[in-house]
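[step 3/7] fold_predict: job queued, chain A
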Amino acid sequence: MKTAILLASTAAFVAMPVAAETAPADMSQRGPHVAPEIVISAPFVRELDVIRSTSVLDGTRLLDNMGLQIGETLTRLPGVSATSFAPGASRPVLRGFQGERIRVLTDGIGTFDVANTSADHAVTIDPLTTERIEVLRGPAVLLFGGQAIGGAVNAIDRRIPRDVPENGVHVDLLGAYGTAADERSIAGSADLEVARGLVFHLDGSFRETDDLGIGGFVLSPTLRREQLAIAAEERAEGNIEEAEEAEELAAQRGVLPNSGTRTYTAGAGLALIRDRGSLGVSVGYFNTRYGISKRPGIEHDHGGEEHGGDDHEHEEGHEHGEENVSIDLEQVRLDVRGEVLTTGGFLDRIRVRAGYANYEHTEFEGDEVGTVFKSDGFEGRVELVQRERNGWRGVIGAQGSTRDFQAIGPEAFVPPNQTDQIGIFTVQEIDFGRAQLEVAARYDRVNTSSNTVRLGLDEDAPTTAVERSFNAFSGAASLSYALASDFRVGVSANRAVRAPSAEELFSNGPHIATQAFEVGNPDFRTEKSWGVELYGRGRLGPLSIAASAYANWFDGFIYEQETGLELDDLPVFQFLQRDATYYGFEVEASAKLFEAGRFNIVADGVADYVRATIDNGGGAVPRIPPLRLLGGLEAQSDHLTGRVEVQWVDSQDRVAQFETPTDSFTLVNASIAWRPWGTERETVILLSANNIFDVDARRHASFTKDFVPLAGRDFRVSARFSF
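[step 4/7] structure written:
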């Protein structure tokens, strides 16, 4: 009821001024789907240095990089890796940060899923229906939520129309086929002006894959050695069947078992677009089912009355490890977006964005229902955009959200909980000519509560109600200077504060996805970070470059550490708080090597690196991506673009105590894009070949890297038609 009232109030607030059709502002005549440059939900901040570490993926680049999940879609961008838990579940990793420290957004509003709860949970964004994806790195994205201490990813779709289509109608069709997983994908959308300025939108997508083809063995060399050692031991003891089973596991190659996926979406939207504002609403449905690979040898019993050490017994329990595990997920989502231009004075416009979603996913072991995760969430945002005066511009805003979460089943390692958050923020910019100053500030009040927090490790330990409230003050400042008309250098500093998540506070139970018995700490304080970044961006002769070096010093960094104990046949991992240090760099550059009329040859490259350490002898932060280099050569014309690229990822042997090292790998990719009507239309047909030499590649940021490699050789054909 509370959520419904908030949504209704938001819609009513926006609708009031929309009816005023006075002075022309040219908001409805930008052409067919020519969207403005949007960074998160505030277009005016696109030039601010405080958040300028930004990458954008759209058009042909988005089509060429499109993966099953948003994490895999973004991995060629500087500073970005992915969790790569399974083909159907992959979140982005920014500058080594993942999980709760990265906000994944849909048009500036949270996704309302439970992907942050566990790495095996999918993000409820289908890249097939996404028009544009923006990546913002670093704590300066505090503008979009205090939890985004590591960065944010914003996916923009057309579900709520922004423009009146030319000639009253616009249609997009997209299809793709990939050989690595026998992937079949199709998506379509249509915008129709049903009355003057009233635009109706309809979209849908379907994608299905078989088990993923890989470039080598399923198991990493470390796990293969373990299985072969088990086989030798079992054979020596006369257990021939068990020995053959271990040998078979070690010999698996070419195909990743139980990795197939099926995803479909549907959505509709309606927007009233007038000269002085707009108001739109949409409804969307997301459904996916995907397989989860299990680490060989992991077995887990649950269902008994006692919960103790290695020799504990369970009555009426069942054993994990025999049946394939899969997740069936669905979400229904409602969204509202409005904008009103003011008639003068201090403000230029008012923007409102709100969303609500009901989410549920079920984990299956074969046909048997395991744990069910449910979440209801609401988030709303209001921005007051100031009118520019003598080089000064800015925004003042407020944001609020609520999430009601529960997990039901034998592996509900987090108790039911609710998190409420309200925040206020501002960004201000002053232009002094060649110098620019930007400042940002944010305050969040976060309340997290649960009525069933277990006070011990035993299943029959008493429970109690816990409620924690946190105040988080964050700020950032940036000073930049134009060394030339097209090259700028600068320095930014920030102070970011994050409230601990419900998972970090209340976890106490077996978590099979991470193969750990996870234990939180309800007494955690806020996580604080001081950060500094040096950058240079622009053009130096024929070279376009964006380079940055950054460092972050954490007070009370929250992480997991193995305790040496074992419960429920799983190692116990305890959430801890200690100081930590991150530092790294990113470089992205391109240069035109040859030009003849409309034909160009361009070379480009990306390099990124991050090093993260728990201070005072705590060792490496786990799952940190290693050094990565990517270079490409591209021939460009109006109708044809051909590209060849090589990506090299270094080995990672700087690991936490419970991690295994990861070998280096090199991927070679090639593509050719044909635009029948040139660059004036969005229509493109793309042929590509990824991992041409079919190498065995594993991402260190993944929980499952030792038994879930990346895709092997993949030939793809993709097409997008727009008319």
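[step 5/7] annotate
The longest strand covers residues 570-596.
The chain has one domain: 2-218+257-722.
exit 0
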